[in-house]
Amino acid sequence: MPQRKRPVADEEKAHILRDWLSKAPRLVPLTSHRFLVSEPHLTDRPVLSVYGSDIIVYGWDMRVYLLNELQEELELTEAVYDEEFEFFFPEACKELADINKAVYENAPGKDIPYWKEMILFWSSGWGSFGMRSPNDTDERIQPITKTYLPEGNEDNQKQFPNF
Known about the structure:
Elements: H1 10-23, E1 26-31, E2 34-38, E3 47-51, E4 54-59, H2 62-69, E5 77-82, E6 87-92, H3 94-105, H4 115-121
Antiparallel strand pairs: 1-2, 2-3, 3-4, 5-6
């Protein structure tokens, strides 16, 4: 299948975005920048944390989401002193850490149609799927779908520098 050139006209860009959004599972707002993925065919009903284009799975189901969201209110944290910042930070207690570890160990192979591509775009989202970011091992990031290339560029996937 030949690769299409990057659209120039705003109308064409808007059409591509509307088409993508029409196929993506709807996001139901919960609070602030947390959204429930509304897709009846998914085994799990994940809750996403969406901050611009930086998206992570905040919980693979409502139970895990609520445990993470309300961990301080439910006293599921321990104060840990950070010597560099000379400050106490809340850290998940062992029980909550074990729950999160088990959830993410079962995450490989899970999918969230369309949104997974956005989640894996940023390095912070790879752990959501129980995967290590290629940036951690200097591997090349492969897109889930072909991206548009500016006119005149060779057919190579762009690589982003490590930060």
